[in-house]
Fold:
Amino acid sequence: MRTCHLLCSVSTGIAAAAALTACTRTNPTSAPPPAVAAATSEPVAPAAAPADPYHPPPRDTVDIPLYKAWQQYSLQCARCHGEDGQGTSFGPSLLHALGPDGDVATREAFLDVLTHGRPDKGMPSAAKMGLDSTYFDGLYAYLKGRSDGRLHGGRPARRD
Structure:
């Protein structure tokens, strides 16, 4: 019984010390002094806001059909072929496949893959994935633009 009382007292003391330590201020002299602008006649420009690495600004502006195709790619294809079509351990690079040396170098070959899939490689048809054929031309245009270097990776801006 006495051991329990002693342990409870020690743990309460540790918790109180941790709470006090968390609430104390840091030593203001340990922080570096703020930079002082040199005395010149030129005004000092405010520092630019740091870029947001998680939400970069769009690099391309595309028409609505191409934007919708990008959305469908992101929903249906990116899980295997990567966010920007560069491939993953599950699916090959579509940028290379749609290139001049790729195995899906033509629009017809691309549409054939979407329509029939590649069961021998584990790729279902677009219909099995729930991808509507109305997006096929836009998907081809988006991925061909990425493959040819006309479009950059990432979310494009939509032209209204």
Summary: The mean pLDDT is 79. The chain is about 45% helix and 5% strand. Strands lie at 61-63, 157-159.
